[in-house]
């Protein structure tokens, strides 16, 4: 009889099939207990969305081959050292237990899984594992916070992984978004709950760590293991592998390996180094992206030439709905974020008191945002509406944006009707009145609009939040235009101008979001432009960065067309590097001259 290792899911499947066919009636008691007690759990935790199982292929690599493949996968020195320890003659080639566990911190999860496979192969060859089964469980999809039965199932998996590898995946982005959208409002409360779940999980690992090999997959930003080990005494030993960042020479070696291993290596151009985008540092993911771009175009432009120019339009990525995370990821605005956290907490407690039947003082929730152009007033207002909707604090999260021209009518009496209609549209959400100060005019329509706004702010105080926005000084005059206006505004947020470092960071982020990279000189030159721009009054903040990038992209387009026309082979397509790289000459230096008014200096003369 030939024995072959299989997965637990396959055993569960066969067990359930045998039950249906009534084939288990004559099974003796010990065997029945084994099947019934060990394999009766929700198999979706392994085979469904929560995880998966696989059997490592049988092959003999040897230490040198494993190290060679690891180098081609951007493995760091700690991975190489661990492989050498596994193959060391000092170790017995027999399973006595698990001396260390592993932690992979990689942005590119595919690169991490490839190294994980090499690690598994090395352990199997040296008798460090009893079986070739690799079980992977998505930690957040288990929803351990809300389902106690999942803890029993997870413990069953830990026990059944005896002598094999159990991979705990923390990198599922959709799951992380789900966790962040929990009903629990306060961030500290949510983090506290997650800490308790993690603490209980690590205790479970400690229970089975002698015979089950645990591997944690996480993003470098998560630092789950580091945070936990810093706050708790842990009885497990981990070897940590971090995503390697390399120089161009190493990246070119990796690219050469990818080209050599591809099935179109005969079509690799002589200047293949140009496939690699010019940047200061490289990861396995960035090199692989460049290779994949070249490969897809080579297949259509060089191999199957009938498809030349027949590129499929890339699907638009799904837009994340986590408004709070978007707000926190915005550059600068530290004080604004703190004030918004306070506002959110106030809203939440007010709602909790109402739901608990407690007295809750009715107070105004309307706001005033003041700041210069491009200081992110509109963006923050829109995100705030989304956050309040996500947290269940607003019914619809509707965001109605308007200005003076949207609120005044052509004839007497029309303005009040228009304003009331805007409040109806914003019911359950936010009415954002941008540059509201022109309403403070000498004609009869502006004052009529202000009076109606004040009245409707009171009428809709429970279902509409009004946010006024504009320049600081004109908005102060606007508040004086009606006695009841200032008293109905509970929160005043002052948006500061961005400094040079923040402008450079915003510019780099905009460039990345649009799929561009740049030369080192381009970034240095842009920093110099921002250093000059911030000395001018009303220089535009984020709008200036956006305009500068748009003009730079236009200049890059002109440069590429000119360059392609001058080449000896005009039919040769531009490389991915050409299309996404901005050079110093592409910067629109004349953009700064649009802001000629110097900011007043502070001091004595």
How would you explain this protein's 3D organization?
The protein has 605 residues and is an alpha/beta fold. The chain has 4 domains: 41-242, Rossmann fold; 248-307, no CATH class; 323-495, Rossmann fold; 500-594, Orthogonal Bundle (Helicase, Ruva Protein, domain 3). 48% of the residues lie in helices and 11% in strands. The chain contains 24 helices and 13 strands. The protein has helices at residues 8-20, 29-39, 44-47, 63-71, 77-86, 109-125, 148-160, 173-180, 187-208, 224-231, 248-261, 284-303, 323-328, 334-355, 377-390, 404-407, 414-425, 445-459, 472-479, 483-487, 500-513, 520-533, 542-566, 576-580, and strands at residues 51-55, 101-105, 133-138, 165-169, 213-218, 238-242, 366-371, 399-402, 429-434, 464-470, 489-495, 517-518, 581-582. Helix 7 links the parallel strand 3 (133-138) and strand 4. Mean pLDDT is 77; it is low at 38-49, 173-190, 312-320 and 596-605.
The tally of helices reads: 24
Spatial ordering of strands, largest sheet: 1-3-4-5-2-6
Unreliable segments of 5+ consecutive residues: 38-49, 173-190, 312-320, 596-605
**How would you classify the helix and strand content by structural class?**
alpha/beta
Largest sheet: 6 strands, mixed
Write a brief structural summary.
The chain is of the alpha/beta class and 605 residues long. The protein contains 24 helices and 13 strands. It folds into four domains: 202 residues, Rossmann fold; 60 residues, no CATH class; 173 residues, Rossmann fold (3-Layer(aba) Sandwich), CATH 3.40.50.300; 95 residues, Helicase, Ruva Protein, domain 3 (Orthogonal Bundle), CATH 1.10.8.
């Amino acid at each position: 009889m030939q024995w072959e290792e299989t997965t637990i899911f396959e055993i569960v499947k066969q067990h359930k099939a045998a039950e249906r066919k009534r084939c288990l009636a004559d099974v003796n008691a010990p065997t029945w207990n084994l099947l019934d007690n060990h394999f009766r759990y929700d198999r979706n935790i392994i085979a469904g969305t929560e995880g998966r199982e696989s059997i490592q292929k049988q092959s003999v690599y040897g230490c040198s081959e494993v190290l060679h493949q690891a180098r081609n996968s951007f493995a760091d020195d700690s991975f190489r050292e661990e492989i050498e320890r596994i193959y060391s003659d000092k170790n017995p080639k027999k399973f006595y237990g698990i001396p260390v566990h592993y932690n992979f911190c990689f942005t590119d999860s595919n690169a991490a899984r490839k190294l994980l496979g090499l690690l598994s192969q090395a352990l199997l060859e040296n008798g460090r594992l009893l079986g070739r089964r690799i079980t992977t469980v998505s930690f957040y999809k288990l929803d351990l916070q809300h389902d106690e039965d999942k803890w029993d199932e997870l413990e069953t998996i830990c026990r059944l992984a005896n002598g094999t590898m159990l991979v705990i995946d923390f990198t599922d982005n959709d799951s992380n978004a789900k966790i962040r959208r929990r009903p629990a409002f306060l961030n500290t409360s949510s983090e506290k709950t997650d800490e308790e779940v993690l603490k209980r999980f690590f205790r479970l690992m400690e229970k089975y760590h002698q015979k089950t090999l645990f591997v944690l997959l996480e993003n470098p930003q998560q630092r789950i293991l580091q945070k936990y080990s810093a706050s708790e005494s842990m009885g497990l030993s981990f070897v940590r592998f971090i995503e390697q960042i390399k120089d161009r020479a190493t990246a070119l070696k990796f690219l050469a390996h990818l080209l050599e291993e591809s099935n179109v290596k005969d079509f690799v151009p002589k200047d293949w180094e140009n496939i690699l985008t010019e940047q200061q540092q490289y990861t396995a993911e960035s090199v692989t992206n460049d290779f994949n771009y070249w490969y897809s175009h080579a297949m259509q432009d060089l191999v199957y030439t009938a498809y030349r120019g027949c590129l499929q339009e890339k699907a638009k990525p799904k837009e994340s709905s986590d408004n709070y995370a978007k707000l926190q990821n915005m550059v600068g605005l530290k004080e604004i974020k703190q004030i918004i956290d306070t506002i959110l907490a106030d809203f939440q407690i007010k709602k909790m008191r109402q739901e608990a039947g407690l007295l809750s003082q009715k107070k105004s929730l309307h706001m005033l945002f003041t700041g210069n152009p491009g200081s992110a007033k509109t963006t923050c207002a829109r995100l705030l509406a989304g956050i309040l909707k996500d947290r269940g604090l607003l019914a619809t999260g509707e965001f109605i944006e308007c200005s003076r021209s949207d609120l005044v009518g052509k004839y007497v009496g029309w303005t009040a009707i228009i304003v009331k209609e805007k409040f109806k549209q914003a019911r359950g959400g936010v009415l954002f009145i941008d540059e509201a100060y022109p309403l403070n005019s000498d004609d009869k329509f502006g004052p009529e609009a202000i009076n109606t706004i004040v009245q409707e702010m009171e009428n809709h105080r429970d279902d509409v939040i009004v946010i006024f926005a504009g320049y600081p000084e004109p908005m102060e005059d606007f508040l004086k235009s009606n006695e009841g206006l200032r008293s109905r505004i509970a929160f005043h947020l002052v948006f500061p101008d961005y400094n040079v470092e923040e402008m450079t960071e915003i510019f780099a982020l905009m460039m990345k979001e649009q799929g561009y990279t740049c030369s080192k000189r381009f970034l240095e030159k842009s920093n110099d432009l921002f250093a000059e721009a911030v000395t001018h009054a009303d220089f535009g903040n984020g709008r200036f960065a956006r305009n500068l990038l748009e003009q730079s992209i236009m200049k890059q387009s002109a440069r590429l067309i000119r360059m392609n026309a001058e080449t000896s082979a005009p039919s040769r397509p531009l490389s991915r590097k050409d299309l996404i790289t901005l050079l110093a000459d592409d910067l629109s230096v004349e953009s700064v001259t649009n802001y000629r008014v110097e900011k007043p200096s502070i001091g004595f003369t």
